[in-house]
Amino acid sequence: MSTNPHSAGRSGLELSKFRNLPVILIVAGAIGAGLGVAASGKGVTQFAFSWLLAFMFALSLCMGGLFLVIVHHLFDASWSVPTRRLCEHLACLLAPTMLILFLPIAILAKTIYPWMRLTNPDHAVQSKYPLFTTPGYYIASAILFGIWWLYSNRLRYWSLRQDETGSADCTRRMRFFAASGVVLFALTLTLAAILWMKGLMSEWYSTMYGVTYFAASIWVTLPTVYVITLILQRTTVLGNLVKEKTYYMLGSLFLAFTVFWAYVNFSQYFIIWNANMPEETFWYVLREKGTWDVVGKYIIIFGHFFIPFVMLLRIDFKLKLATMLPLAAWAWAMHFVDLEFQIMPAVHPNTILTPGLLSDLGCVLLFTGVLMIVFIRSLNRHPLYPLKDPRIAEAMDVYVPPAAEVSVTPQGAK
User: CA 380 to CA 392: how far, in whole Å?
Assistant: First the structure.
């Protein structure tokens, strides 16, 4: 294995077959978004909500990447060594790429959030001061991106530094950022979900909303990392570093978060419905109207939980491409539907089947293309795996005896 950090592990020309895909996605997405906005009859409002949905979809992948990097260092795992650098690149999309993509939301915030247009805020908004104020919204958003930039940037910086020096200090630095970062990750992700999605209906109360978005974010990131790792291994970029245990653990975590997502969503519904408080139940009442009732009771319950759960129960299915690749595509589709259920009733209260659905899908494709360009550029600029990770030999199933066990051959002996 090459030890030159400036050349080893690069993706190089192996990814050239994908160079046109981001552009195709951007063009197709822009056309779809334009047609959907024009046909929806809601103009700027439809565009703003579609852009928000795409942003939250992309944010979930980036935050999922950051979480997987953090837990890698917290648990000192070996199976995740081959995927660590990929997750670092996903996390680094948070800033400046996602910050730039957030600008249309910041500009159209008054179109998106009704509480920003209130001249006399009601009790529900007043009780959420100072967060649900215009200055509070922008200050909180800036703080979120600042924290995400700091941790994603520093974790990758020390990771790349480790490639050059192999110093134990780099490992200690990454563990320090992971230990403090896991707390800030939970706080910032929760605040982002409340500020940018839950704030669409400012009078709603739920203490579990941040957890539901967290569960969905990690759930959709795991199959994404699975597919990216598979592509890079099949193009011989990762060589012999990726073993079956990497795919098995990704599949197992995918199953675990399938159950966890179902648990927290059901818990939120069960507690709110049994408490029967109008400031909480109205959110679900709105989503039991028209076709939203079908989405919530059938598509999400069976598509987001039962189908993945049953397919992932078998151990061998986690290693079969015929199972995991369609399941990854299914996960992206279900995450899209879940975000539709979370966001779009605020602008389309009776049905999901509107021309705006084309705009939503178009914006998601556009975001995907933009993020792919930046992600592939990062792959080509840096080694694809941590060259001097202390667990790299264990990840490759290679036994390296401790120095004390190495026999020293006497000088002159043959």
Answer: 21
Q: What is the spatial distance between Cα 276 and Cα 278, in angstroms, rounded to a whole number?
A: 6
- Which helix or strand (DSSP H or E) is residue 153 part of? helix 134-165
Question: What pLDDT score was predicted for residue 9?
Answer: 52
**CB contact at 8 A, 229 and 68:** no
The structural domains of the chain, with segments of one domain joined by +, span 12-387
Q: Is the distance from CB of 178 to CB of 74 less than 8 angstroms?
A: yes
| Angstrom distance (rounded) from CA 79 to CA 76 | 9
**Over the stretch 114-172, which tens digit does the pLDDT of each residue have?**
999 988 888 888 888 899 999 999 999 999 999 999 999 999 999 999 999 999 999 99
Structure tokens at 46: 């439809």
Q: How is 160-191 classified by DSSP, letter by letter?
A: HHHHHH--HHHHHHHHHHHHHHHHHHHHHHHH
Residue 151 CB contacts under 8 Å (≥ 6 apart), including other chains = 66, 70, 91, 177, 181, 184, 185
Q: Determine the pLDDT at residue 87.
A: 97
pLDDT band at 406 (very low <50, low <70, confident <90, very high): low
Cis peptide before 130 (omega within 30 of 0): yes
* C-alpha dihedral, 407 to 408 to 410 to 414, nearest 10°: 70
Q: Over 60: is that where the pLDDT of 236 sits? A: yes
Token pair of 124, please? 């529900």
C-beta of residue 250 within 8 angstroms of C-beta of residue 86: no
Check: CB of residue 34 under 8 Å from CB of residue 380: no
Compute the CA torsion angle 31, 60, 177, 102 (nearest 10 deg): 40
Q: How many CB atoms lie within 10 A of CB 261?
A: 25
DSSP 3-state assignment of 289? coil
pLDDT digit string, tens, across residues 311-348: 999 999 999 999 999 999 999 999 999 999 999 999 99
Cβ pair 147, 184 in contact under 8 A: yes
- Contacts of residue 413, Cβ cutoff 8 Å, sequence gap at least 6: none
Q: Tell me the angle at which helices 44-75 and 356-381 cross, rounded to the nearest 10 degrees.
A: 40
* pTM value > 0.85: yes
What's the Cα-to-Cα distance from 150 to each of 11, 66, 228, rounded to whole Å? 26, 11, 25
pLDDT at residue 13 in the model: 41
Give 347's DSSP letter.
Answer: T
